[in-house]
Amino acid sequence: LIPLLVGAVVFTIVQFFMHPYASRATLGMITDSTPEAMKQGIREAANKPADWKMIFQPITWAVLCLIGAGILTGLAAMFSAKGKFKPILSAFAYAKLVALPGMLLALLIVSLRGLDSVNGMMDIMWTIGPAMFVTENKLLFNLLTQINLFEAWYVILLVLAIQKITGAKRGTSIAVVGVYWVIGAATQIGF
């Protein structure tokens, strides 16, 4: 429960402080071909302050952990590894804490660059990986953001946790986490 709460609190704080930058990045979505009504809607949404909707951030963190642990439990069962949901959820919540330093570093980098340097969503997504060398291609950037130092650390922790909890061999644990990682990367690339 403690890693879930710590993750939810840090996630909420980062999202609160990233709000002005994300709003500015939203304005970057307006192009010449955007209909006028949509332009007005985007401008209004970008100019709204962080408000009561921030209470949903901890819920989002918890739901992401529940879904991730559920997928891992199902995949472990499919690969004939025996695992129970509760220990996998606990291990998942601990492993997910590895993402927090990456979030905090992204907030620090974006804050140091300043609000004026944000022109689009690619400007607020910071990574330690090959995506830092991509500037124009959004699909390639989204793909490469899934390959970074914190993601590798997270995957290694999940492999070790699945291996320990389920009693499966390392190859089975790698297959379970590998399929989970591909599912997660595919959903992130879509956004």
Helix and strand layout, with pairings?
Layout: H1 2-27, H2 36-46, H3 56-78, H4 85-96, H5 99-113, H6 138-144, H7 149-166, H8 170-190
Helix pairs in contact: 1-2, 1-3, 1-5, 3-4, 3-8, 4-7, 7-8
Write structural notes for this entry.
- The chain is 70% helix and 0% strand.
- It is built from eight helices and no strands.
- The relative contact order is 0.14.
- It is elongated.
- By secondary structure, the protein is mainly alpha-helical.
Short structural summary:
The chain has helices spanning 2-27, 36-46, 56-78, 85-96, 99-113, 138-144, 149-166, 170-190. By secondary structure, it is mostly helical.
The count of DSSP E runs of length 2 or more, i.e. the number of strands, is 0
Q: Characterize the largest beta sheet: strand count, sense, and whether it forms a barrel.
A: none
Which regions have little confidence, pLDDT < 50, spanning 5+ residues?
none
Helix and strand string, N-terminal first?
HHHHHHHH
Distance between the amino and carboxyl termini: 29 Å
Strand content: under 5%
| Overall spatial form | elongated
Keywords:
about 0% strand, about 190 residues, 8 helices, elongated, mainly alpha
